[in-house]
Amino acid sequence: MSVDILSTLNRGGSGLNITTLSTDLASAEVAPRKAMVQTRIDSAETSLGALDVMRSSLTGLRGTLTALSSANITRVTSDSAAVNVTVDDAARVAPQSISVGVQSLAQSQVLEFRGFSGASQSLGIGSLSVDFGTWEADSFSVGTRPAQTISLGAGATLQDLADGLNGIDGIMARIVDVGDGTVSLGILSQTGASNALRIGTSADAASPLQQFDVSAGPGSVQLRGASDALLTLDGISIRRQTNEIADAIPGVSLDLRATTTDQPPAMISAGLNTDLAAEAVTNLMQSLNEFRSLARSMTTRGTDGMAAGPLAGDAGLQALMGSFDNLLTRGYDGLGDQPVFLSDFGLITERDGSLRFDRSRFDATLSQDSGRIESLLRGALNAGSEGVSVSGRPLRDPAPGRYDVVIDTDTSTATIGGVVVQGVPTDDGRTLYAVSSGPLSGISLTIDAGTTRSTIDYGPGPLDSLGAYLDEVVANGGILDRRENAFSTEIAENSDRLTALDQRMTEIEARYRSRFTEMERVITQLNSTGDYLTSLLDSWNADN
User: Fold this and answer.
1) What's the total number of domains in the chain?
2) pTM for this one?
3) Less packed terminus of the chain by CB within 10 Å, N or C?
4) Are strands 139-142 and 126-136 parallel, antiparallel or unpaired?
5) Is 400 found in the same domain as 448?
6) How far apart (Å, rounded) are the C-alpha atoms in residues 430 and 460?
């Protein structure tokens, strides 16, 4: 327990606790001002916390918009078991029907080395080299992959060789019990004609290793040669090293399961799935309503007995919500003949500003033009000429505007948005141009013969505009950043004021203590003089 030394020693003075009295008087003078400053700090910290909640909500909403902009609303089907299809990037899939004929599947090379007693059979010392390339009869053409070497030391076994082969990219080796008391070493390459293997042995390799030398040709140890997949897309012949093909149809992967040489080609159909589209719009409505409800609760002024929100009356946040509501109700030009509204897709604004989803209105819009849903989710991409059709979606977010298309009929090339693209003729006499670089990377144009010039118009849709605005709001220097900096500055300034008031209180308390100490000295002196006079009078009275 602390001891008030001044008050303890102050036995002959006023009897007051001058330390406590000094502290109380100083506190009475400073405490009201400290309370006001602390209230400002608490209010600013509450507002700063509310802004952090809003930032998190805005970031979540932005993520939802990004996900919806690539939402899979397209159903892609194949009418043949020979070709399976999956959607990789729904934003790039255009409504279409494509004929896919499969002449041959991609296959791996299979080599079998027979007659071993078991996996532990010793092979001796030596090394094997493995080249990758293409076999044509007994002639081998080395490919671009570097050769690999496997070195075997004393005591190396068949299992050691299999392990060494499995350590090389593009090779799978396994030891198989064939059931006659012996095992075989099977070696498989990757699919594709250029992934075939040529195995050679070093000149000093032990005799058991020599049987793996097929540098002069695979001969009888080859059970199957490596080959490419051969197929046609709407009559256009293409070749691929694998049966999983992701670059033939924008946004779609093909999985070749069998050939179609004895049956009609597979028909790949891509079209709008209205249920998935409705689900995407419903998710959009819920996300927008959740953010709007949070923002309104944060900025409400607390009328009709309701408590005010932590950001009530904040002009910057009120301006943010005004712009946000405007983006939900305004029309978007450049996406077709008429402006596009969220209400066109069944997102109806209620009297309180919230949204509800009207499925019947949504279905009515899509029944008139199913492609309009793309303008909502991903903006619009339109050709400016009759003889030009556009499919796919830009992989990046190009700047809104008009892009020139210039076709050179002599070279079958087109300059699209400043990028030169080589054309591929189609069965119907048109030319297909697939853009793989530049601002419009990801789209494909099919152009009629004789067309030499056109344009491509790209315009952002509601989701694009909402996303761009949210990026602006949460960016450095944006509305939230400015308000957060303002509140942080207010907290820092008022914290400095609290420190100054604490120092001021210490100074006032010291001044009071000094004055009370001087008072006690005078009182003590007077009390001492009084005691002396009393004693003197008592002495005189006693003498008399």
Assistant:
1) 4
2) 0.58
3) N
4) antiparallel
5) yes
6) 29
